[in-house]
Design brief:
Blueprint lengths: L7 E4 L11 E4 L3 E8 L5 E6 L12 E6 L5 E6 L9 H19 L5 H16 L4 H6 L3
Antiparallel strand pairs: 1-2, 2-3, 3-4, 4-5, 5-6
Helix pairs in contact: 1-2
Length: about 140
């Protein structure tokens, strides 16, 4: 397992309210979901989201632990992914989280306003990606 000095952060998962860490994103490239927890629920084994993909069956895993203050940190992570990076999926998840936060902070505001705000932020942040035209023609 490699060093924990790798850039990482957590996104809320569907079940993260139940005490789990949510979705672990490592180096802005790979997503991990909780698979197992120890009895004390202070250490979690997380597997790459591509684990169940029949094409890849990625075996990469990370171990996440809980600090005394209840926050989570990546204890260890291996880097043995057998698939391409999907930054677009991670970016889309982050944008979705931004929209959800806007709606939570002001629930009386129409959801369309949150969508517009995040679209404007994304346009400023990402602009016209050079790969956008090439990606549209793939497949």
């Amino acid at each position: 397992m490699s060093s924990t000095k790798r850039e990482h952060y957590f996104l809320p998962g569907r079940k993260s309210k139940n005490g789990g860490p949510g979705i672990l994103v490592v180096e802005g490239q790979y997503k991990f979901r909780k698979n197992k927890a120890n009895k004390e629920k202070n250490k979690f084994i997380m597997y790459c989201v591509q684990q169940n993909n029949p094409e890849f069956g990625c075996k990469a895993r990370a171990v996440v632990a809980t600090r005394e203050d209840g926050s989570f940190f990546m204890h260890s992570c291996d880097g043995y992914h057998n698939h391409l990076v999907n930054r677009a999926e991670i970016t889309a998840e982050e944008l979705k989280q931004r929209m959800a936060e806007i709606v939570r902070s002001n629930p009386v505001e129409p959801v369309g306003e949150a969508i517009k705000a995040v679209k404007l932020q994304a346009a400023e942040e990402f602009g016209d990606d050079d790969d956008t035209e090439n990606n549209a023609n793939v497949g």
